[in-house]
Design a protein that fits this description.
elongated, 11 helices, 4 strands, 65% helix, Outer membrane efflux proteins (OEP)
Length: 469
């Protein structure tokens, strides 16, 4: 017996060493990754072209040309690819993939070992040892529910990301509209500034020569100062818009972007909007994300209910006691659900499911209200635009006649200033209404998950994330 035992030790040691090496070979290794201290913004628009060219197949064959100015579709595509915030949010997709991978892994077995050395009177006694192998069964029972929950959660992350991409497209296109129409308003004000400045210089010279009265020169100065104030305020607004726009596209603040002229913003019929609204739960990414999130929570509830059953573990063991007797045994561990029984977690998961239900219903209600509000606003804006288009040309003609009369001192300075100021303000209002109409249309497209101008700007969803660590 001693001879056989001596020969068996190297064999047992070899098995143990091989098992240890096999376990260690499957372990991940740590590799540090320093934080990159570089801004992702690029200085030139051409730097975005390589990434955009790779997208052309996915964008329905839309021809992206950065040399002839960007239209609203190109702006949406470039923003969804290069926006720094979206790049960061796409990393969450990788996290969700890793979580789905982790949920499908089987639980590891547990090995236990022990040594006992006799003390005192050790005559006839030997050292005792024990070796056991155990496995928990409850994780196997809840495994499929956990897999279902994490996979639905992964789908929710993908749909949330898709909705964020839609929001970035809407913001970038709205910023492009603001950028162009603010520039148009600035051009109008600068033209008026040149006119007022020249008129003020002439009236100041005429006042010194005694040819006009003080109120005429004061009127010209008032018009000039008011225009300078408007220009300053609009420049501040335009500066903020330009920086926001560049950031959305991943461009350096100093980068210059040429935009194509805006077409007319067409109105959306209420019949088309209502038909789309009826199918909105099947189309809009955020609503789909909430629906998938609810399904994920259903799986969490099911996993919590399954986990209330007694925690069961089984094991086998091999041991030698101090009397040199060898034993082989089977062990079973059972947790009795007398006090907890996982009832707390079940209550939490069910309450969370109820919260998601109400959140989904609230989002549907908000979508219905928002669409109706924007459709009503669309009607109001169209009426205002039609009024200005009807009466503004006649007002412009009267101002031109009044300007000539004012130069001959045939009308009072205050009368002329009021007429000219009204025309300038109404012209600025006309441009602002055009901007509001465009932003309203873009917002409606996003809320109703509609294609955009002139083609649908397809949001870019990442490929399936790697599911191995």
């Amino acid at each position: 017996m001693k001879y056989l035992s001596a020969r068996s030790r190297p064999w047992r040691l070899s098995i143990a060493a091989a098992s240890t090496l096999a376990v260690l070979s499957g372990c991940a290794t740590y590799q540090p990754r320093p934080l990159e201290n570089l801004s992702p913004l690029v200085m030139e628009l051409d730097s975005l072209q390589v990434e955009a060219a790779a997208l052309q197949g996915a964008a329905g064959g839309y021809d992206i040309n950065l040399t002839d100015g960007l239209d609203l579709t190109e702006i949406g595509i470039l923003a969804v690819i290069n926006n720094p915030d979206l790049k960061g949010q796409r990393a969450q997709w990788q996290v969700a993939g890793a979580q789905a991978f982790a949920a499908g892994l089987l639980p590891d077995p547990q090995i236990s070992a022990g040594l006992d050395k006799p003390t005192g009177n050790t005559t006839g006694l030997v050292g005792a040892w024990s070796l056991g192998l155990g496995y928990a069964l409850i994780p196997l029972i809840t495994r499929q529910a956990r897999i279902d929950a994490t996979r639905k959660g992964q789908d929710k992350v993908r749909l949330d990301l898709l909705w964020q991409e839609w929001q970035i497209i809407q913001q970038a296109r709205s910023m492009a509209v603001r950028l162009q129409l603010e520039a148009e308003r600035l051009t109008l004000l600068k033209n008026m500034r040149s006119l007022y400045l020249e008129r003020y210089r002439r009236s100041a010279q005429a006042l010194r020569e005694g040819d006009i009265t003080l109120n005429v020169n004061g009127t010209d100065l008032t018009a000039l100062v008011d225009t300078l104030s408007q220009i300053t305020q609009l420049k501040q607004m335009h500066n903020q818009t330009r920086h926001n726009f560049n950031l959305l596209l991943g461009l350096d603040p100093q980068a210059s972007v040429t935009l194509t002229p805006l077409p007319q913003a067409d109105s959306l019929s209420r019949e088309s909007a209502n038909a789309r609204l009826a199918r909105l739960a099947e189309l809009r990414p955020d609503l789909l994300a909430l629906k998938v999130g609810y399904e994920s929570q259903e799986a969490h509830v099911r996993a919590a209910v399954l986990a209330q059953f007694p925690s069961l573990g089984i094991g086998i063991n091999r041991a030698r006691d101090t009397g040199n007797a060898y034993t082989t045994g089977l062990s079973i561990s059972l947790t009795l659900p007398l006090f907890s029984g996982n009832r707390g977690n079940i209550a939490i998961e069910r309450a969370t499911r109820e919260r998601l239900q109400e959140e989904y219903r609230a989002r549907l209600a908000q979508a219905q209200v928002d669409v109706d509000r924007l459709l009503a606003l669309q009607t109001i804006l169209r009426e205002q635009q039609e009024n200005l288009q009807t009466y503004l040309p006649h007002l412009k003609m009267l101002v031109d006649r009044a300007r000539r009369a004012y130069s001959r001192s045939d009308i009072g300075a205050l009368t002329f200033l009021n007429m000219e100021s009204t025309w300038v303000n109404k012209r600025l209002e006309q441009i602002s209404l055009m901007q509001a109409a465009w932003e309203n249309r873009i917002a409606l497209e996003a809320l109703l998950a509609l294609p955009g101008y002139p083609n649908e700007p397809l949001p870019i969803t990442p490929a399936n994330p790697e599911t191995t660590p």
